[in-house]
Specification:
Pfam families: cNMP_binding (PF00027). The structure is a single chain. The chain is α+β, with helices and mostly antiparallel strands. The protein has a domain of about 120 residues: Sandwich (Jelly Rolls), CATH 2.60.120. It has a four-stranded antiparallel β-sheet with strand order 1-8-3-6. It has a four-stranded antiparallel β-sheet with strand order 2-7-4-5. The protein is globular, with a radius of gyration of 17 Å.
Length: about 190
């Protein structure tokens, strides 16, 4: 069984998942504890796993050839994490996924998950709802990048992660917003 009822409730928030299906999911999952700063999906790696973050914080970022990093997203507990495009296309990941603090997560074999989805309607519904959620997140992020200035994007981030300044280093927040740490400092003062 999952480590806590909240994990099972999280899965059930996407659809009604039976105990049998949860047991099947556990068979293709491994519970992991990772230290802060651990890259669990590396740039250029062809991934085969998707992750359910149980505790901690994860960032997803793009790294240029010169070594400059651009944060794409932050993940908080009880969210699914992974390089979806690379998984679907079975291609190298453009993104790096890294823990920002000590974290716990379930590592799920993505391709075995797809096989289970073919056999189980409730799991297939869960997967479809997960994809819908991911799509809506990306669409929201795109609208923010196109239509909001840096201060407005910062306010939106604060709504999504209320204590973001205490949880995530300023330079990571600035990168996510597409500004410098100095610009972020000025915004925070206002």
């Amino acid at each position: 069984m999952y480590k806590t009822d909240s994990h099972a409730n999280f899965l059930n928030s996407y659809g009604n998942i039976s105990e049998d299906v949860k047991e099947e999911l556990l068979k293709i999952s491994e519970f992991k504890s990772l230290k802060a700063g651990k890259q669990f999906v590396k740039l250029g790696e062809v991934p085969s796993k998707v992750f359910m973050l149980v505790s901690g914080i994860v960032r997803c970022y793009l790294s240029t050839e010169s070594g400059k990093e651009f944060n794409k997203s932050f993940y908080m507990p009880l969210s699914f994490v992974g390089p979806l495009t690379a998984l679907i296309q079975r291609t190298p990941s453009f993104f790096v996924f890294e823990t920002l603090e000590d974290s716990e997560m379930y590592e799920v074999d993505y391709y075995k998950l797809l096989e289970l989805c073919k056999k189980n309607e409730s799991l297939n519904v869960l997967y479809s709802k997960f994809l819908e959620t991911v799509y809506m997140m990306y669409e929201k992020r795109l609208v923010e990048l196109i239509s909001l200035d840096a201060k407005e994007r910062y306010v939106e981030l604060q709504k999504q992660i209320p204590n973001v300044d205490a949880l995530i280093p300023q330079y990571h927040i600035a990168s996510y917003l597409g500004i410098t740490a100095v610009q972020l400092s000025r915004i925070r003062k206002k």
